[in-house]
Amino acid sequence: MYEFTPQLRSCPILQGLQDSELQTLLDVVQFEDFDAGDEILTEGLRYQSLWVLLQGECSVVKRGPQQNSCLADLGLGSVFGEMSFYSSSPHSASVIAKTSVHTMRLNKADYDKLRQKSPETAYTIALNVIQILSERVRRMDQWTCELVEKDCTQARHKEWHDFRAKLYTGLDL
Predict the structure, then answer these.
(1) Cβ of 114: how many Cβ atoms within 10 Å?
(2) What is the DSSP letter of 3?
(3) What is the pLDDT of residue 3?
(4) Which residues contact 122 (CB under 8 A, 6 or more apart)?
(5) 3-state DSSP of 98-166
(6) How far apart are CA 41 and CA 95, in angstroms?
(7) Among positive and negative, which fits the CA dihedral 119, 125, 129, 135?
(8) DSSP states of 15-81
(9) Which of 58, 69, 94, 137 has the greatest count of CB atoms below 10 A from its CB?
(10) Alpha carbons 92 and 43: distance in angstroms, whole number
(11) Which of 125, 30, 131, 6 is nearest to 40 (CA)?
């Protein structure tokens, strides 16, 4: 079994995996180390890989025309790359190592093989990714609502309300 088993067991994406399923997963992932300042994932590129941060800290950075914005700080057990993992969309932000980091990387081709070899393992990982994404959407929605309610005109409030109504009833934006 891999030496970071306590860290692996605490990762949200690996919750619910039996020892044999975790070992099956470990047989197909790559472990990668990065130095502070290294760009692990680059905005605009397509890697179709899912990373789990096993050691160290990273920042999620969105590049802007005038300046970059730090969207989030990631720590032990954090997952990134998930938005582009199941689709071929380019990454919407970059992930940069703040410290030396140790990651576990599952690329899409190996995930597809895992789906054939151990569908239960792949299903559990997918379900965990859905839960992670759901929580992120929930927090983003709450934050955006608070921002809109805090300081906004009636027209902007209506625009936000209309957008949310469309978002939650279909994708016909």
Answers:
(1) 20
(2) T
(3) 52
(4) 111, 114, 115
(5) CCCEEEEEEEHHHHHHHHHHCHHHHHHHHHHHHHHHHHHHHHHHHHHHHHHHHCCCHHHHHHHHHHHHH
(6) 5
(7) positive
(8) TT--HHHHHHHHTT-EEEEE-TT-EEE-TT----EEEEEEES-EEEEE--SS--EEEEEE-TT-EES
(9) 58
(10) 5
(11) 30
Cα distance between residue 148 and residue 154, in whole Å = 10
What is residue 1's predicted lDDT score, i.e. its pLDDT?
Answer: 46
Q: Are strands 49-55 and 79-80 parallel, antiparallel or unpaired?
A: antiparallel
Dihedral (CA of 130, 136, 142, 147) sign = negative
Rounded to the nearest angstrom, the gap between the alpha carbon of residue 83 and the centroid of all alpha carbons in its chain is 6
With 60 as the cut, is the pLDDT of residue 21 above it?
Answer: yes
Q: Which CATH architecture has domain 5-125?
A: Sandwich (2.60)
Structure tokens at 136: 């992120």
Which residues lie below 8 Å from residue 13, measured CB to CB, with a gap of 6+?
Answer: 50, 52, 77, 79, 125, 128, 129, 132
Contact 76, 122 (CB under 8 A): no
Domain spans of the chain?
5-125
Structure tokens at 12: 């949200």
Pairwise CA distance, residues 137 & 38, whole Å: 27
pLDDT in tens, 93-122: 999 999 999 999 999 999 999 999 999 999
